[in-house]
Amino acid sequence: MSGVCREVLINEMKRLLDIISSIGFSKGKPGLGLKNDRLDISEREAIQKELSLKTSLDENLRIFKLFSGPSPDIIVRELKFGQAKVRTAIIHVDTLADTALIEGLIGTLSVDPFQTPVGEVHKREIFREYKERLLRSSKAKEAETFTDMWQGLINGNTAIIFDGMAKALICETQAHIGRSIEEPATETVIRGAREGFVENAETNIALIRKRLKTPNLWVKKFIIGHLTQTDVSVLYIKGLAGEELISEVYRRINSIEMDAVIESGNIEDMIEDNPFAIFPLVFRTERIDRVVSMLLEGRVCIITDGTPFVMVVPMNFPMLLQAPDDYYEKVPIGSFLRILRFVAFTASIILPGTYVGIITFHHELIPTELLLRLTAAKEGVPFPVVFEVFMMELVFEFLREAGVRLPKAIGSAVTIVGALVLGEAAMRAGLVSAPVVIIVSFTAIASFTVPTFSFGIAARLIRFIFIILGGVLGLFGIQFGLLVMLVLLSGLRSFGYPFLSPIAPLIISDWKDLYFRVWRWADVTRPKLEGGREPIREKRGQEPRPDKQNEGRNETYGNQKDENPRKDK
Length: 569
Description:
The protein is α+β, with helices and mostly antiparallel strands. It has helices spanning 3-23, 41-49, 57-68, 99-109, 126-135, 146-154, 201-211, 243-254, 264-271, 288-295, 325-328, 331-361, 368-378, 385-405, 408-428, 434-447, 453-473, 475-491, 546-563, and strands spanning 74-81, 86-93, 141-143, 158-162, 168-171, 217-224, 230-237, 283-285, 300-304, 310-313, 493-494, 497-498.
């Protein structure tokens, strides 16, 4: 064995011996192993999970200092309460806990011992006395391990440790940290609620309960991330959402093993059916009304603490092109806007590629006068039309991304000015023709009608594929691309549910909310796949009938006239 290998082996053996000897449980010194600075994070977590609270307050404070380190934002106050002067430690994390609530808690603990028998009891019973007779709060919980106590502290609660008791009392003292409830910037509506989700998961759950006041709205909480300890909540209406769907959501979330959850996108990557799909398979939204309406259809929503985007599963393709305005406006207007959105989305995908294919291979499809004008406009341009369109689309994507990343005050101005200047300069320089600029501009405007941002990005990527297909194979390439895309979309699943439902599989009863929107009194059934457990949404026959209402009103007036005839003068 070489000298280098021998030295490495000796160092590893020393490291293992240090870890084993530093654990210190057998010596009656729990938590001593945390003093070893050579421990990895997994080794520290393994030791921390085994640490339980002791009866000695000094021992608990010593272990807690090793547990959390010398952090200045962790406040530990030692006080004495009751006639027995029982030593007590009050621990909280600064800025996460409300100082006023903590002072009120201390005031409750400092009740005059002559007015209550707290000071007369043995110090081993003071924990029970304070919990049952003084605090009297359903928000007060017990913690027997340092991990449970830390979980409460990091959520803004306050821990109370009494000398002589191997338990901690966790009292709710969270401070409100975060922005106020505002309208979602990415999903604005003309008519509808102006409230959107925020970064606090408990606030988001309360906003949903404010609109769904049924006791059958169930919430299941998970903690994911070894380091971030992020709260992830699953909400559904019991008896409406399918039990198979609920079990599948639980299974996928429980199978997540990761060290950190920063945003709901981290959860989405771990639970979606096909990670290679361009189209989103988990619906994301900031709007409360959209989540409530989807829960009423039998779906399940997933709320991640720290992000305003709530995930809803399962989803299908039509949900990506539906907007809240469709349901809040009159039925003809909502149906027109939805059809317009479907047409614009289709145009944003295939229009540039179709133009390239026709100009390159299918001149006979263009009227003669228009063909002469297009040929004259392209005169002097040194590049083929496929390169023109591809280059202009790429430049517009640069401008769009720059507008998103720049500050809001100048982002939109830079995008508009940049598009105008570059388009005009490119035409004057003879690099692109005027029809190409028109096609690219119309395509960009059509893409802005997509109400879902993630879906719009997918459409922008597919657009480049159709441009290449149109430049290589013409309209046959566009047809081939559409068929391939249709086949791929038909094979996608969202938590086991078909992505193209109700188109494939064909469910005629669900077409009432596909391209056209029906009246609310006619929408009496839920989607067949998601809401099949309770298909009837409301009572039938509630459509307005002005003729019958007028008849009833006339009969009422007639009865009143008969009962109270006018007296002759």
